[in-house]
Amino acid sequence: xxxxxxIALLATQAExxxxxxxxxxxxxxxxxxxxxxxxxxxATLGLRxxxxxxxxxxxxxxxxxxxxxxxxGAWQVLLRTARPGMEAGRRWGxxxxxxxxxxxxxxxxxxxxxxxxxxxMVMGSSWRSCPFNIALLSMPGFVAIFWxxxxxxxxxxxxxxxxxxxxxxxxATVIYCLHCPEMQVAFWAVWYGAGVLIPTIIGALLGPRLLxx
Length: 213
Known about the structure:
Low-confidence stretches: none
Strand content: under 5%
Largest sheet: none
Mean pLDDT: 90
Distance between the termini: 29 Å
Helix content: over 70%
Order of helices and strands: HHHHHHHHHH
Number of strands: 0
Radius of gyration: 20 Å
Structural class: mainly alpha
């Protein structure tokens, strides 16, 4: 069979591309991520008892907004890095932005406080468990997001794995905020960041193996 005949034969059997498939795939993964983290949080940690009272404060919403915006940024980067031959480019700024903001805010609170309060502000009362709790809550999202990304045939496997872990960690952190009683920005900058970093590093390590197609 000639090459032109083969191409013509394949073309006649081609079906229209479902352009909504990636959105449905990622949307399902994010639904699993948020619902899974919520169920795990309620089952193992519970809601903070003063949630109703603290939810009317601007600081609490800043606490939620930081990982929320980080998740949005990771989502935007993943839409590019999970597809063959595409670069994230300036979208990396959407990831860096929330991190820079929370660290600047943390630095500002430390500068305004007496030096003797710096250690309690950074360490809080739950620094030992906080990162690992976030990593635990990220597990459903980690599995679901990896499944979604693998179906998109990524070529930069380590980067796609790291961003998948980042998205899972940031989403889990949003849910963890409903449990965590810590209200110091310096604490969030260090220990929430460490919690998000765990699935990010694991994603980078496992990406070349789990995302291969």
